[in-house]
Design a protein that fits this description.
There is one protein chain. The protein is mainly α. It has three domains: 1-216, no CATH class; 238-330; 349-376 and 437-595, no CATH class. It has helices spanning 4-15, 25-39, 47-55, 97-109, 113-130, 137-152, 158-174, 178-195, 206-214, 223-240, 244-260, 264-280, 288-306, 311-325, 346-357, 365-375, 380-393, 422-436, 438-451, 454-462, 472-483, 487-508, 527-533, 535-541, 549-557, 565-571, 581-595; strands at residues 402-405, 411-415, 514-516, 522-524.
Length: 599
């Protein structure tokens, strides 16, 4: 039976017009249901309650390479259950036949297209995995019709409408319903006309991409419709060609089309627009590093079409190589510090601290430490979404090599295209993600220092499984100087503590920590070897967090594309950063993660 408050809320959604208040209204619905279920702490959520909550908490258009079910809706991690905390994030492993039947019933009775679309789409998406057969055709049709209605009535944010109308087209093609395909096609064209603005590349060009490039052989598009889409994109290129980031979106689409048509003259014409823009743009010519990057970008784009057999692209690629060798560059002006100011409301800060420490009565120290540890891990789905969003808005940027510079100005890596080098791009964005979270981590640790004495926090770590055999004097000194805000000393003391704790973890789980040497004895595995070769042990131990903890440790401690703190500490690189609070706080966060391990 459905919770009465949840039932009233869902009934109100059926009566009211849902307005596009955010990118993903479904998530807001899920959050409201969670809040209603939490009001009564004695109430035990029913299966219907959970079905309603998780129905709207799944992430649509989830990256398949990170979803082992290969479904359209992806799972979020699930925190370990306890009596005080219900499941906060959905897992597709919670879905069974009974839940599918419930969603089927709700899809058919709901009059609100936002609701009916989500219920029906989950059944369409999960049925092959859960019950080993496809959903009924009428459920496909509900999704298609509902998504078209959502876009026609502007019931969702424009970007959300874009996702939904593509889903409608894909499902219409899947069931080979020509009438539905035609309606979806018409809705796509109309949606772009309604939402397209020159300064937002994510809101234009998608009709061209889907109808002419991606699904051309599976849909019927008239010559008039095709000509209008091409002309609209060509006209937009003329309007935005002074902005390199907007122009590249139009050029990437047109170039792919003309290449498919074997129209080399028009291919080179649009590529020439981008080349001239990159060469003359004030920003890309402001210093040596940006200028080289601009030439590398142009060169790699020409290489792409050279490899497809276009002779003029081959000649252009060779020409750019010669020009790069003749550039007069001033490298002294290349490296600059860039800062960005973001306004954060005090209420957001207060709410965040209440969530960590408790609103009325302070939670126990063990619970506070667990929340700190889990809240500041890089969430895989968030990093993937950020990377997907950026690559979608600036596609050509990810067709080229990216130069990575160390803190002291040394080129340490070149990343190739996103498709060829996804893991390294992901590492880079994950590192940025955790560094962007440093502000809130600092706030939380400041509050922790106010509420917890130096002696209590020291006792907590001394009683933790991985630190109980640690040298007590060393551990106490490390915690003490950190609580006294001596970040240089605490960072240097934390690094060996972390390494020995990880070694202790691997050893206690039966992993390998020693290897034979050529002197007849043994060498200890380095931290990099422990995190790489014994990483599966660490992943299993921390599986309950829903995140890959071995990846996080590598990202902070040993990866060149990450913070690389342990290696920089050991080899004397980037010494200045060890004076900063961010480094010390991040190392302390790893200490909190390790302290969660129990026998």
């Amino acid at each position: 039976m459905l919770n009465n408050e949840v039932k009233k809320y869902l009934e109100s959604l059926e009566r009211e017009q849902i307005t596009p208040t955010s990118f993903c209204r479904e998530h807001n619905i899920a959050q409201k249901i969670k809040d209603l279920l939490k009001k009564d702490k004695q109430y035990e959520p029913t299966k219907e309650d959970i079905a309603e909550q998780i129905a709207f908490d799944f992430m649509a258009d989830y990256p398949n390479d990170n979803n082992d079910w290969e479904t359209y809706h992806g799972p979020m991690f699930v925190l370990p259950d306890n009596k005080e905390q219900m499941v906060e994030y959905p897992s597709i492993r919670q879905v069974d036949q009974e839940m599918l039947e419930y969603w089927t019933k709700r899809a058919k009775e709901s009059k609100n297209p936002i609701l009916s679309s989500r219920y029906a789409d989950l059944v369409v998406d999960f049925s092959p995995k859960v019950i080993n057969k496809s959903a009924d055709i009428d459920l496909f049709q509900i999704v298609i019709d509902s998504n078209i209605a959502i876009c026609e009535k502007s019931l969702a944010d424009p970007l959300d409408c874009k996702t939904k109308i593509k889903r409608a087209l894909v499902l219409a093609i899947q069931i080979n319903n020509q009438e539905k395909i035609a309606k979806a096609k018409e809705a796509i064209i109309n949606l772009e006309k309604k939402v397209a603005t020159d300064d937002k590349p994510g809101l234009w060009g998608f009709a061209f991409k889907w109808l002419i490039l991606d699904f051309e052989k599976k849909i019927t598009i008239t010559e008039t419709e095709k000509s209008e889409l091409i002309k609209a994109l060509e006209d937009r290129l003329k309007r935005v060609e002074k902005d390199v980031w907007l122009a590249e979106n139009a050029v990437s689409l047109l170039a792919e089309y003309y290449a498919n048509e074997k129209d080399e003259d028009n291919l080179m014409r649009v590529l020439d627009v981008l080349e001239k823009l990159l060469k003359t743009n004030d920003r890309t010519n402001s210093d040596a590093l940006l200028k080289v990057h601009a030439y590398e970008k142009v060169h790699e784009i020409y290489q792409k079409y050279r490899d497809k057999g276009f002779s003029k692209a081959t000649a252009a690629s060779n020409r750019i190589s010669q020009e790069m060798g003749q550039l007069d560059l001033d490298w002294n002006k290349s490296l600059k510090e860039i800062s960005v100011t973001t306004e954060i409301k005090q209420k957001d800060i207060d709410d965040f601290l209440k969530a960590i420490f408790g609103e009325k009565e302070q939670s126990k120290l063990e619970a506070i430490i667990a929340k700190i540890a889990i809240n500041f891990l890089p969430k895989k789905e968030a990093v993937e979404k950020q990377l997907k969003d950026v690559s979608g808005k600036h596609p050509i940027q990810f067709l080229c090599t990216t130069q990575i510079i160390s803190d002291d100005g040394i080129p340490i890596a070149k990343l190739s295209t996103l498709g060829e080098d996804y893991d390294n791009h992901f590492q880079r964005y994950a590192s940025q993600y955790i560094q962007f979270g440093s502000f809130f981590l600092t706030l939380v640790i400041d509050e922790l220092k106010k509420r917890v004495s130096k002696q209590n926090i020291t006792d907590y770590f001394r009683n933790s499984t991985l630190f109980e055999n640690e040298n007590k004097e060393y551990l106490e000194r490390a915690i003490s100087v950190y609580w006294d805000n001596d970040y240089l000393v605490s960072s240097h003391l934390f690094s060996p503590l972390i390494e020995s704790a990880i070694r202790e973890l691997v050893k206690n789980c039966g992993g390998i920590v020693l290897r034979p040497n050529n002197l007849g004895g043994y060498d200890r595995l380095t931290l990099r070897q422990l995190l790489n070769k014994q990483g599966e042990i660490i992943e299993r131990v921390f599986a309950g967090t829903g995140q890959n903890m071995a990846f996080y440790f590598r990202l902070v401690l040993t990866e060149k594309l990450g913070m690389n703190l342990r290696n920089d500490f050991a080899h004397g690189f980037g010494k200045k950063k060890f004076f900063t609070r961010d480094v010390s706080d991040r190392l302390f966060h790893i200490m909190t993660c390790l302290s969660l391990v129990k026998k």
